[in-house]
Amino acid sequence: MAQPAVCFEDFVIGQRFDAGSVTVDGDEVLAFATRFDPQPFHIDQQAAEKSIFGGLIASGWHTCSMMMRLMVDGYLRDSSSMGSPGIDDIRWLKPVRVGDVLRVSSTVLDIVPSTSRPDRGVVMTLWEAYNQKDELVATIKGRGLFLRRAQ
Amino acid sequence: MAQPAVCFEDFVIGQRFDAGSVTVDGDEVLAFATRFDPQPFHIDQQAAEKSIFGGLIASGWHTCSMMMRLMVDGYLRDSSSMGSPGIDDIRWLKPVRVGDVLRVSSTVLDIVPSTSRPDRGVVMTLWEAYNQKDELVATIKGRGLFLRRAQ
Questions:
Q1: Which residues of B touch A77 (CB under 8 A)?
Q2: Domain architecture of chain B: domains with CATH
Q3: Which residues form the MaoC-like domain (chains A, B) (predicted)?
Q4: CB contacts < 8 Å between A and B, how many?
Q5: Three-class DSSP category at B90
Q6: Residue B1 pLDDT > 60, yes or no?
Q7: ipTM value of the model?
Q8: Which residues of B touch A136 (CB under 8 A)?
Q9: Do B84 and A92 touch (CB under 8 A)?
Q10: Is B65 in Cβ contact with A36 (below 8 Å)?
């Protein structure tokens, strides 16, 4: 069986990966929020205009999910990823609006080999999303569990 | 204008809110992951069976989004919520599978009045999701910004 392109031992602290960009789609903002986060400022144009946001904004969970997709396309899909035990923090810093273009990067913060299972370890990363105005709109500090390359 | 049912001053530390349950839908697991998290163990039945999970599992972002919806239906929709500045941590503790029934609750951990803006404050909550086997599958510690009731 082919080895994945990216395994635990390939990560280096400080390494930065540019995961490309995504344009925030209006239909998807509404569809996501209607199903998962139907608060007025996510689904009701008029209510959103009267809110502190001054217009419709994407659900924060949608923003995280868009960031995730870029990471899967960028390196996770062809990696030894075994999923994630969790997230250390998320910050939603600026509203994300329809038509925004989010550029997403991942920086390796720490690498923690498993003490009980020498074939794997946890990689801690900081994901950052900037919009087209170079404003930092969201950050995710998360953990991924990866296998080492099979010997 | 009618006051929202739930405002900042209505939260009490330790208060627990039962947000009901959701059954994890197979089509939605595939649709969500295909769009946002297309890793093999989320979208490819055969690859998932060979993975450490032994079968398809929902994206962790999908699990969080399902939890969010229960909270919106439960109390956020008719509240003075102004959105969330962020999440303090997420733990994905057990795989979430198609057909699982997730019961979700919210417990108030802390209440922090704004020092600069007396009309609002942050409520810190712990959201917990248990499956039908009473296993804790996911937790989210998050922050919500709420207005006080208008005087």
A1: 38-40
A2: 8-147 (3.10.129.10)
A3: 13-110
A4: 96
A5: strand
A6: no
A7: 0.96
A8: none
A9: yes
A10: yes
- Residue A43: pLDDT band by 50, 70, 90 thresholds? very high
Note the Cα B79 to chain centre separation in Å: 16
The per-residue pLDDT for range B45-89, each reduced to its tens digit, is: 999 999 889 999 999 999 999 999 999 999 999 999 999 999 999
| Contact assignment for A88 to B89 by CB distance below 8 Å | yes
By CA distance, what is A61's nearest residue in B? B65
Nearest-angstrom CA–CA distance, A97 and A12: 34
The maximal CA–CA distance of chain B, rounded, in angstroms, is: 60
**DSSP, residue by residue, chain A:** -PPPSB-GGG--TT-EEEEEEEEPPHHHHHHHHHHH---HHHH-HHHHHHSTTSS----HHHHHHHHHHHHIIIIITTB-B---SEEEEEEE-S---TT-EEEEEEEEEEEEE-SS-TTEEEEEEEEEEE-TT--EEEEEEEEEEEEPPP-
From A39, A77, A91, residue closest to B76, measured CB to CB? A39
User: Is the CB of A68 less than 8 angstroms away from the CB of B59?
Assistant: yes
How close B114 comes to chain A (CA, Å)?
16
pLDDT surpassing 70 at residue A9: yes
